[in-house]
Amino acid sequence: MSDDACPLPSPIGASEAEAVRACLGMHRIAVVGASDDGNRAGNYVPAYLRDVGYEIVPVNPTHARVLGQTCHPTLAAVPPPVELVLVFRRPEFCAGVAREAVAAGARGVWLQAGIRSAEAKKVAQEAGLWYVEDRCMMVEARRK
Predict the structure, then answer these.
(1) Distance from C-alpha of 72 to C-alpha of 54, rounded to nearest angstrom
(2) DSSP assignment letter at 114
(3) What would the DSSP string read from start to end of 11-73?
(4) CA torsion through residues 25, 50, 144, 98, sign
(5) Are 129 and 104 in contact (CB under 8 A)?
(6) Global pTM?
(7) Using an 8 Å Cβ cutoff, are 75 and 30 in contact?
């Protein structure tokens, strides 16, 4: 995953478009892998989303605060409800995050641009969650 910039979106299929629309309609977003570094996508993407009306809840055990908010050490520590889990973690961690999202009662999981995980997709879809991967939520929010 590159933290340099969000790439332009690739063409989107009908089922993926439905998942993107559903996730963009959710408003309370737990951001797993949120960063306190303004140069990283884990900071400027959730900052943009907050600025356009989403409620952002940062999750990262290495930071006390992100975007001026308390940063929770784990997804389980986030007070409910969690509608969407936006993930800024390497692919090998994403299935675990998807399992945590299911346990937290989330309705969707979104892996940021550059991140794909077949196992996370399987976990989310088997639990009936909306699932998006390898797309920048900021770019998609700007397109809606």
Answers:
(1) 18
(2) T
(3) P--HHHHHHHHHHHT--EEEEET--S-TTSHHHHHHHHHHHTT-EEEEE-TT-SEETTEEPBS
(4) negative
(5) no
(6) 0.91
(7) yes
Within 10 Å of residue 17's Cβ, how many Cβ atoms?
13
Write the pLDDT tens digit of every residue in 98-111: 999 999 999 999 99
Tokens of 100: 């945590």
Closest Cα to residue 23, out of 115, 77, 101, 96? Answer: 101
Q: What are phi and psi of 29, to 5 degrees?
A: -115, 120
Q: What is the DSSP letter of 143?
A: H
1-51: per-residue pLDDT in tens?
444 556 555 667 677 899 999 999 999 999 999 999 999 999 999 999 999
Q: Is 80 exposed, middle or buried (0-12, 13-18, 19+ CB in 10 A)?
A: exposed
